[in-house]
Amino acid sequence: MALQSDRQTPISEEKNGPLEGLEWNNWIFKEGIARLYLPFLRFLMRHHGTDGYRFWPAPPSELKNLDHASLTISTEFWKMVGESSFDLYPQITSPTPGGIQLQTSENLTIKKTIFDFLSTKQSEFIVPILIQLGITNIVTPPPAVIKGFTEATTGEVSLLSVTPAYVRDILRNQTQCKLLQEHWKKDPENLMSNANELLSFLLEDASEDCLTGCSLLPLDGGSWGTFSRESVSQTQYFTSRTPLERSILKVAAGRLVSDGLEPPVIKGLLEKGMNISLLRFGCIPSLCKLAESKKPECRKAWLVDVWKYFELCVAKHPPKRDKYLKSIESLPVYCGSVVGEPDCLRFLTPLSLVSEGLPAIIDPNTPPLEGGKSVLFQALNGLILIDKSTFPTTEPPAESIESPLGVRRLIKAISCLPSTVPTIHSLSQVFSGVPIEGIEALSALILPRLSYLLDGDHSIADPLKQLPIWPSAAELKLAPHENLTLTKMIDQTTFLKPDLASKYKNELKKLGVPQLSYKDFLNDEVGLARKYLPAEKIGEYGRFIEMVYKENSTIFSSYNLAVNGDLCFCLPSTLYDSSVPLFQAAFRDQERSRFLHPKLAKSHVWRDFLIKSVSGPTYMECARSIERRNSQTIPDDQIESDSQMVFDHLCYDYPEMDSWSIWESLLEIRFAPINETTAPWGHSQLKRQQREKFRQRNKLVAISEAVDPTFEGISWAVKPVLRKKMGSLALQKITSKKPMIAPTTVIEHLKFLASHSEEIERNELQKRVSEIKNAYEYLEQNIQTCTIPEDALIWLNIENEDLGNMTLEIFRKSWSCTRNLCLNINYDSGEIKRVRSFLGRFHLLLLHAEVSALKPPTPPTLEPPTTQSPILEGLLKFREQRLLFDVTIIAYKPGGPLETFGAHKIVLASVSDYWKSMFASEFRESCTPEVALQDDPSTIKVLIDYIYTNKFVKPQHEDDVTKQLETLLDQLEMSGKWFLTSFKHSMENFLSDAHWIRPETVKSILECSRTYNADRLALVCEKYIKDNRAIVEREAAQEEYSSVMVSS
């Protein structure tokens, strides 16, 4: 080491010696002593276990002598320890009855170590738990070592230590949590203390989710709850502060926290926002739902506790009383017994009690009543007596039967008994078993308070009238006229006698007993009260109604004073005048219910009230009656003639029809007769079959299902035809609501004719063709709403010339669909047919139906014609005269005849590089007078003619286009082989014509043109395919299919 000037003290500061000496000493301290000490310490820890910690240097803060050397060595040592990979740390193995054993055979590196920096108390509790869960790589160093780590380790070195967060992460594993729970169950006496201590430790974690996912919440009954955030939890647990709260929470089975959980732990859980809460009155509604599954007696006891809790909550927060009551108003929190049903408890909601729809009152027998009141309440079977202990304590005084409010509730409750108790059907039955002293007690309760009860509350008047406090409950009406009370047409017992009315004059006035007006008297006592008239009283009723008509004839329009044939009362304006034939036909089977009773029909009283004229609604009723009669299993035998009578009304233009608003509804009523099957001689058999088919379904149809004879020609195959034409006004009104035919109807009609063309006879051809023409004209007129499927077989593709001499064969074979038709062509191509003259007139309709229109090929730009030179003219004459030939060309095709062509080598070689290379080379042909070619002789002749004339002669069109096209393509190929560019271009121009380029040939021409490098022709074919792709693809697919069928 570098020493100071005294030769004894190491240089520790810059002022004590040269800088180099200080740096040398620092290197010795850091890289020498501190680094060499680590292997030594490793040896000690391996052989001495935890005793080896005695040899660890003190951390800088623990040094007693703060000289430079000690401080530098200590600081560097602790830094190296944090970064060292040496196994310096003895681990804890397993707990023993005497404590914790240390293992000295194998130590851990810092990266594999979990350091126990906990306090002694926490360590003694937490470390055994971790070991039980299989965590054995725990190291518990002494305090000095812990301090050294915490002071010297940098942020680059992360020590894994036992913390609440670390333990929580382990216990989030449900398997580990279950293992801990099972271990604790073996020591039930300490289970809750262990749970409290562990939860207290985990709550030290500052994070909000310090317990989330851990099943460590001890519940009542021995189960465990899982912690989660209250804001997102689907399961809420409850804890209590008092025995009363715990009694209320007992219904939350499986969600009540064990009472052994200590208050500080509960407080910590609440502060962390865990899914645990104290009982609040806001919890009562959800708990009430749980209580409903309990036995009635237990449920009642629970409600008693709830109301006690309610009073405590109100005492603490008086302003919240109404809020608390509002939260439970729809829950069954009232409990009462039922009179006449021992051991029966009923649970009611506050709303049901307030609504007065139940026979319930607060039990007046607490304290017990005496005398007639006690008898009264013991005899009112079905009355619910609510226990005061399940009712707010501040409410019973107001609900007492000694108060007006209590009496009012009693009256309402009694009036509910017939509608709520199955065995009671009337108030008379309610009081049938009440002794006289009970009735007297009821009168004593009600009569002194009658004025108060009637003030501002009219709903109680009717129940009061029916109570047995009156000598006769039924005598509560006053007649409008004295003479009417004496007639036998009314029930005299419903009117109050004069002496009774006098005795209770003031009370009756307040009670509102009515003196009936004349109109009310007739409505209530003569009409609605009886619904029907006894047959023996029909004569007396006729005389009585004559008297009523004299007094007030206007009421006949509003009340059921008419009597029909069934002796039922009804409004006069709902009955029909039986003298009108239309009504007789429509309601033939309802004469008794639709017409006035015959014994009353002769009276002049009814002439102004019965239905006589045919209005829109009246006609609707007639039509519906026909529909109803026809829908019966066995329709009556006059239904068809009656339907004609009713339908015939539409065949005339009555002015009042213009104001009818029934047309849209009338369309859907099945009352209209359709054409009969029988037809005049000469009519179509197919048409007769369709009529029979429609009539088998139903002889009467809705107008919307049929067509007027006006439209028969373009729709008879699809819809039935009405028997008779409607009037112009009716037809116009109906078709404005819904057209009788639509383009889809006509299309289906055409499809029918096409599919049944084999059944159409010779004598009807002209008629059918005319109808088809009309159908096309209709579709063209309605082109905007017309959608024609491409595969619909609806087009009769014939020539106009065929119309005069139409044959069945032409008619049956000329049908086509949209996808098989094509405009702008004058030939048929495979399945694609050209549009013929009969269809051509409907050009707009065809375009709307998206019939394909073929675009012709666009030929390339023509090259200027070449002129023949004088030399060629001379050579041509030599050729014609067969002079000076020096080569003979022999052409033949395998299997075909030989043909020879004389020529001049100089001519061939001067025009064609092919011949030039042959004659001007060492090939055998250059010195022989004959050249053999395996090519079509006709192609050789054309090319030799071109060489001598320099003129392209356009071939005449032949009948067999395919065969001629093959020859021309052969010439195109050979012209390229002979390098006759001008001929090749001329042939390309010639083939770029619609006569050759067709949907079925374009692909083969394109393929050949690409093979022969005929680029101009290829461009024409490609554009043609692009312009007519759909047609070309169809024809190509059809040709492929045909070729496959032929080869198979």
From TrEMBL:
The keyword Coiled coil applies. Residues 885-956 form the BTB domain. The keyword Disulfide bond does not apply. Residues 755-782 form a coiled coil. InterPro entries: BTB/POZ_dom (IPR000210), Sacsin_chaperone_reg (IPR052972), SKP1/BTB/POZ_sf (IPR011333). Keywords: Coiled coil. It comes from Tuber borchii (White truffle). This is BTB domain-containing protein. GO terms for molecular function: Hsp70 protein binding.
